[in-house]
Specification:
With 275 residues, the chain is mostly helical. The protein has helices spanning 26-56, 59-92, 99-107, 115-138, 148-163, 167-174, 179-208, 214-225, 230-240, 254-262, and strands at 5-9, 267-272. The model has no long low-confidence stretch (mean pLDDT 96). It binds fe (ii) ion (FE2) (2 copies).
Length: 275
């Protein structure tokens, strides 16, 4: 089982954030902001799926998950709250969140279905967040130095995503979730995640007035597809999920552990799930 610590981040997210906080770069800022816009709805969905999945386990199998589930819920609830504050700043900047409401409508389609559907979807999203998190932790310069507290928030969130990447996956397996549906949901979530992220990024750029600048698309190319770029470097990890013997723990979590160890002055543990 995974030992998950819930941490209170000691950064002030009440203060407004600069318009191009991500290294002064319009594209990278718009992309990271798009991800943030998905979190309050997305992370509530993950919390609910994991909580319901846990309840569906026979009592004698709950003990193995009890503290891990509590840690998972605590971490995601903390992320939701801080990204909620972050997103309020984006709203004041004139950006409009279409991803959140669209995801909310979509999740209603799962109401009343076997909880393993929501868990398989959560496990797939958690794979996406874990590989993005690991990439970010290996490329912290992406975030620039225009807004250190926003960068700290992203790296703290990334570290915790890396820490709790097994929870939904293990619950899905513990509930007898099969390979066919695990992969079906992975394909669906891959489609939703990519199209939602691109649509929201484009919307953010249009409202920011930087959509038609050549520099925006040069940066997009470098950031996503250039050497060391996000898509190029995370593709093997994305593909690994399709293997029948895949388990999220095979992905290295050292970068997250290192960041948390080096930045212990940036947070306070608020609870600890005993190992
Ligand atoms: Fe999260
Ligand atoms: Fe997560």
């Amino acid at each position: 089982m995974t030992d998950l610590v819930v941490r209170r981040l000691l950064v002030d997210m009440e203060r407004p954030i600069p318009r191009h906080w991500c290294g002064g770069d319009a594209f990278r800022t718009a992309f990271m902001n798009a991800l943030s816009m998905s979190f309050p709805v997305g992370e509530q969905f993950f919390i609910d799926a994991v909580r319901e999945g846990f309840k569906a386990l026979p009592p004698d199998r709950q003990a193995r998950f009890a503290q891990e589930v509590q840690g998972f819920i605590g971490q995601e609830a903390t992320h939701r709250r801080l990204h909620g504050l972050y997103n309020e700043h984006l709203e004041r900047q004139g950006l409009v969140n279409a991803w959140g409401p669209r995801a909310l409508k979509r999740r209603q389609l799962l109401d009343g279905l076997d909880v393993r559907h929501a868990l398989a979807a959560t496990a797939a999203y958690e794979h996406f967040t874990a590989i993005l998190a690991d990439w970010l932790l290996h490329h912290p310069d992406t975030l620039g130095d225009h807004a250190p507290r926003v960068a700290t928030m992203w790296l703290w969130h990334a570290s915790e995503e890396s820490e709790h990447k097994c929870t939904a996956f293990d619950l899905y397996r513990a509930l007898g979730g099969n390979e066919v549906w695990r992969l079906k949901w992975f394909r669906r979530i891959t489609f939703f995640f990519i199209t939602d992220a691109l649509r929201q990024t484009a919307s953010n750029l249009r409202r920011d007035g930087t959509f038609w600048r050549l520099s925006t698309w040069r940066s997009a190319w470098r950031f996503l597809l250039g050497p060391g770029g996000l898509v190029r470097e995370t593709l093997p990890a994305w593909r690994a999920y399709k293997r029948a013997d895949f388990h999220p723990s095979e992905q290295d979590a050292q970068a997250a552990a290192d960041w948390l160890a080096r930045h212990s002055d940036q947070y306070q543990p608020v609870s600890r799930a005993a190992g």
